[in-house]
Amino acid sequence: MTQGPDPHAAPPRGPPGALRLPCAAPLLPAFLAPLLACPACGGALAPGPVGLDCADACGAGPFEVRGGVPCLLPARGATHAVAAGRRTVRAFERQWRRYGRLRRLFGKDARAMAAFLTGARMGGRIDAAWYRGRTVLDAGCGHGRYLRAFRALGARAVGLDIGRGPEQAGLEPDPEGLAWVQGDVLAPPFRPASFDLVFCDGVLHHTPDPARGYAALARLLKPGGALYVWLYPREGRVREAVFGVARALTTRLPDPLLRWLCFLLAPLTLGVRSYSGTRWGRATWGECAQVVHDWLAPALQSHHAPQEVHEWARAAGLGDLEPLPVPVGFIAWRPPSPTAA
Ligand SMILES: C[S@@+](CC[C@H](N)C(=O)[O-])C[C@H]1O[C@@H](n2cnc3c(N)ncnc32)[C@H](O)[C@@H]1O
Ligand SMILES: [Zn+2]
């Protein structure tokens, strides 16, 4: 005899379309679930006994869902495969745990972040009105505050970071349109053509293979979508040499020592310009210490020429490359349809 539905069963939780996980595990938001893919093979994900499984049974996973955040890190072949990559991840986790709740990060409060996303820094085609109803990925979202700004502009905002920065910085999800995923930009766990904008600010130069990261992010663009990338510029020989020697030491310091060093060096931001404009006298001691930590702590840090991004964009089939007001920053666009040039 077949049984009908149990009239006493608890009603299903969450909005229709949400990916339901076993028992008491939280639901993934309805808007997020269809965007996700196995980081190893790109196949669909399905609920499994401990979180999410690759529906194509490629051998990757199972993938844990911790506190509602899917952990979709590739098992091998990406950032964690490299010792310096693992040290870089730990450095950023410490950074967001320690500094992630400051009022301003990289010199910006919430208002300045919104202005950043709607001003010249995003090129000539993206303004405040552009975001409404769009789906945006913040690749390497760190503290996650830009997700709030994208959401406030009317977009559905998805964050991706290799660490747990958003939780460490106290970010709150919004089931209607703000969520994040732990994963690697070198093997992003999303279906191709999922996003109208991929925003990647100050991230690829902390990976072992920025060109691979660019190509992987370009695949996530919908036709007509845009890829924003900002990277550290290659500087003059003296500056490169001085920072190369300094970082060879600081990236190996035990964390408590590095923490004090960043605190002591914070006033140097008066004379040594930081890319974010965070400057002693205009920013608090902690805000200056954060940008010093950001520069001195991550083991992986590469510097780039604009020509490299030109080549990456061409190889990825992106066009309309627009240089942004600050080097090395570019927005590139995926042609609107597969047949368009
Ligand atoms: C300098 S922070 C930038 C944060 C944010 N995008 C911003 O502009 O304020 C770099 C972030 O990239 C993340 N990251 C580094 N390598 C990554 C990778 N391979 N995949 C995903 N995130 C990565 C770090 O964990 C860190 O949170
Ligand atoms: Zn798979």
Structure, explained:
This protein is α/β, with parallel strands linked by helices. It has two domains: 33-70; 78-341, Vaccinia Virus protein VP39 (Rossmann fold, 3-Layer(aba) Sandwich). The protein contains nine helices and eleven strands. The chain has helices at residues 83-99, 110-118, 145-152, 165-168, 210-218, 237-250, 255-265, 285-296, 306-315; strands spanning 45-48, 51-54, 63-66, 69-70, 135-139, 156-161, 178-182, 195-201, 221-230, 319-323, 329-333. It is globular. Residues 1-16 have low confidence and may be disordered. The protein binds S-adenosylmethionine and zinc ion. Residues 38, 40-41, 43, 54, 56, 58, 60 line the site of zinc ion.
Keywords:
binds zinc ion, 341 residues, Rossmann fold, 7-stranded mixed β-sheet, 4-stranded antiparallel β-sheet, 2 domains, binds S-adenosylmethionine, 9 helices, alpha/beta
Q: So, the CATH homologous superfamily of the largest domain? A: Vaccinia Virus protein VP39
Low-confidence stretches: 1-16
Rg over CA atoms, rounded to whole Å, is 21 Å
Quaternary structure state of the chains depicted: single chain
Beta-strand fraction estimate: 15-25%
Name the helicity range: 25-40%
Report the end-to-end length measured between terminal Cα atoms. 61 Å
- The CATH topology of the largest domain, please? Rossmann fold
Number of domains: 2
Largest sheet: 7 strands, mixed
What is the mean pLDDT?
92
CATH architecture term of the largest domain: 3-Layer(aba) Sandwich
Under the CATH scheme, which class of the largest domain? Answer: Alpha Beta
Bound molecules: S-adenosylmethionine, zinc ion
